[in-house]
Amino acid sequence: MIAYISGTLLSIGEKSCIILTSSGLGYEVYLSSRTVQALPRSGEEVKLYTTTVVREDTLDLYGFFSLEERETFKVLLSTPKLGPKTALAILSIFTPEKLKNVVSAEDERMLSQVPGIGIKSARRILIDLKDRLKFIIAGKVQPGPGFSKPPVREDVLMGLTSLGYTPLEISHILDEVLEKEPDLDVSAAIRAVLKEKARDK
C-alpha cells in the first residue's frame, strides 16, 4: 500500500498528475479539483499523502495534501455505493471541515450540489456519514490519531486564487515566502505574497 509519495511533478491533467520519484518510477495520481489547483508548477517538487484503490480491473492512486483529507476520502469510500470518483467530487467542493458542517446540519440540498448526487442519494449518504465520520462529535472536528491540520500552503493558494491570481503566477512566490517564514499563518502568508507580488511590478 502506497501511503505517501514525493517527487518531481512531470505533468498536470484535469483530474490527475504524474509524479516522478527518485527511484525513476512515474506514478499517475488522481486528485480532487481543489488539489489540482493547488499543485506547484511542472518540474517542481510535490509531496502527497496517498490511498491505493484496488478494483477488479484497476489499481489507482489518489493523492491529498493533508492526512485529514485522505482519511475523509477513505471514510467516503466506506459508504455503500459511493465510489472514488464521487468521493473526489465531494472533496472537490467541500473541505473536510465544510463537509463536517454539511453532515452535522444534515444539509441534503448542499450535498446534492455534487455532480451525480441527487436529493435522495444525498439523504442516504448523510445518514451513512454520520455513523462513519468518527471525528464529528457535537459539531466539532476531533483530530484523532494520525490526523493533521491542512497545510498552510493549500489554504493560502486557494485564498489567492479567489482574489484572481492563477497558481502559475503565485506558486513560486508563495514557496519562497514559506521557505523564509514557515510558521506564518494563512492571513499573514497571503499578505506576504501580495507584498512580494507588488514588488515584482
Characterise the protein shown here:
This protein folds into three domains: 4-64, OB fold (Dihydrolipoamide Acetyltransferase, E2P); 67-141, 5' to 3' exonuclease, C-terminal subdomain (DNA polymerase, domain 1), CATH 1.10.150.20; 152-200, Helicase, Ruva Protein, domain 3 (Orthogonal Bundle), CATH 1.10.8. Helix content is 47%, strand content 19%. It has nine helices and seven strands. It has helices spanning 33-38, 67-77, 84-93, 96-105, 108-111, 119-132, 152-162, 167-180, 186-200; strands at 4-12, 16-20, 26-30, 45-54, 59-64, 136-137, 140-141. By secondary structure, the chain is an alpha+beta fold. It is globular, with a radius of gyration of 18 Å. The termini are far apart. Strand 2 and strand 3 form a beta hairpin. Strands 1-2-3-5-4 form a five-stranded mixed barrel. A two-stranded antiparallel sheet has the order 6-7. Residues 136-150 have low confidence and may be disordered.
CATH fourth-tier homologous superfamily of the largest domain = 5' to 3' exonuclease, C-terminal subdomain
Can you tell me the CATH architecture of the largest domain? Orthogonal Bundle
Summed up, the helix count is: 9
How many DSSP-defined strands?
A: 7
How far apart, in Å, are the first and last alpha carbons? 47 Å
Please, what is the average pLDDT?
Answer: 83
Q: In CATH, what is the class of the largest domain? A: Mainly Alpha
Instruction: Name the poorly predicted regions.
Output: 136-150
The CATH topology of the largest domain is given as DNA polymerase, domain 1
State the order of secondary-structure elements, H for helix, E for strand.
Answer: EEEHEEHHHHHEEHHH
Order of strands side by side in the largest beta sheet?
A: 1-2-3-5-4
Class from helix and strand fractions: alpha+beta
Helix content: 40-55%
The best one-word shape is globular
Largest sheet: 5 strands, mixed, barrel
| Rg from alpha-carbon coordinates | 18 Å
Number of domains: 3
